[in-house]
Amino acid sequence: MANRIQAIRGVSDILPERSPAWRELEQVLIDVLDSYGYQEIRLPIMEKTEVFARAIGEHTDIVSKEMYSFADRNDDSITLRPEGTAGCVRAGLQHGLFHNQTQRLWYLGPMFRHERPQKGRYRQFHQIGVEAYGMAGPDIDAELILLCQRLWRQLGLDGLQLELNSLGSTESRAAYREVLVDYFGQHRDQLDDDSRRRLEHNPLRILDSKNPDMQALIADAPALADHLDDESRAHFAGLCELLTAAGIDYVINPRLVRGLDYYNHTVFEWTTDQLGAQATVCAGGRYDRLIEQVGGPPTPAIGFAIGLERLLELLGLDPGPRQPHVYIVTGEGAAARALQLADQLRDALPGLRVMSHCGGGSLKSQFKRADRNGALLALILADDELASDRVTVKPLRGQGEQHSVAQAAAADTVKELLAAAALPETDSTPQ
Ligand code: ATP
Ligand code: MG
After folding, report:
1. Each residue's pLDDT tens digit, 106-128
2. CA gap 228, 257 in Å, rounded
3. pLDDT digits (tens, 9 = 90+) for 231-249
4. What is the domain class of 19-169+228-315 according to CATH?
5. Which residue numbers delimit the Aminoacyl-transfer RNA synthetases class-II family profile domain (predicted)?
6. What pTM value is reported for the model?
7. How many angstroms separate the CA atoms of 355 and 283, rounded?
8. Atom 20 of ligand 1, residue of closest alpha carbon
9. Superfamily (CATH) of domain 326-420
10. Is the CB of 256 under 6 A from ligand 1?
């Protein structure tokens, strides 16, 4: 037998039995974002490679080794988006969204990174990203964190921990960088290969190393907090005050530096102890200098992204498939009337899911199909029914006896039977 083609490693199909869970999760997220006045922006999945290279930084993990980049037929370098912020900034600049105005935006969709696939880490994964532009104070930082907190609450999640840090202004971050290069440079012999590479281009990331042999060295490194300038300190203290006033618990993690070059001031992550190594569900921070750096007006900015696969794993949402309420069993020659009756029911009962049998076969095999699809009622249209303008109603889940009604009364009968049946909550009864 020929080898069957498989999906790319780390790239998943979301099958019909899981898609209701995704939809339910997305709806909760969107409703919360709506309630804060955030607006959706739909961004392209591919961009010119420079969009990411310039914004995220050449020496980050993402740009240096994780991007799906290719030359298109014109030999332009194109990249499948590894994250949403860079494209959002590109779009905002292109359409003048940053001129003398504030923006509160969100987007949702697949991202692509060439990483080693494992639980919670995939090559195509989904993020919902939230970005706020034009607001410099810690109040918007706090708003985003409160928004996250509300999301967790709406989803019934507790036990997520908020970790916070400040990277300081670009100036204090640069000054700290020097101090750090100096310190790690003096202990070059204790650095692993990764860290030696980072020392040159991205020394803050050494603090982020997971290598146990490096932990003692890292623990003794000069702390960023001791190198913040007054403005940076005031911003961070302001945020901490707002969070405390809102009753939000947080932990200050001085080693939280985040992988992307563009962050300054506030950075944060929401983590869990229930997902093993892939513990971060949501991550973000401020990036006040990015827009200017890629050629736009100076625009304060902050955002975060949630990894939806990790969130779903944590939630274990299982609303089950969306089974039809009604399955129309169709005798020979009844196809036209069956399609009509199905539409008549959909018109009369918004929200009703009606499947009409296609593909012929015996009535018995059609009942089997109805049952396998999880339908609650079968409506039968065969010779007798066609001749008498009636339809036979057969409850499939113990809602009474089979009986016959006039076709014109079918919608009323369906409505009554469904109202009487105790339907699961996720499977809303049509109004
Ligand atoms: P990590 O340290 O886990 O690689 P990151 O810093 O690269 O994370 P971000 O770019 O901040 O991650 O992305 C935000 C969120 O998106 C992460 O917290 C995570 O929930 C999710 N995420 C990132 N990369 C992946 C991936 N390859 N597969 C699944 N989810 C991911
Ligand atoms: Mg990563």
Report:
1. 999 999 999 999 999 999 999 99
2. 14
3. 999 999 999 999 999 999 9
4. alpha beta
5. 1-324
6. 0.90
7. 43
8. 307
9. Anticodon-binding domain (3.40.50.800)
10. no
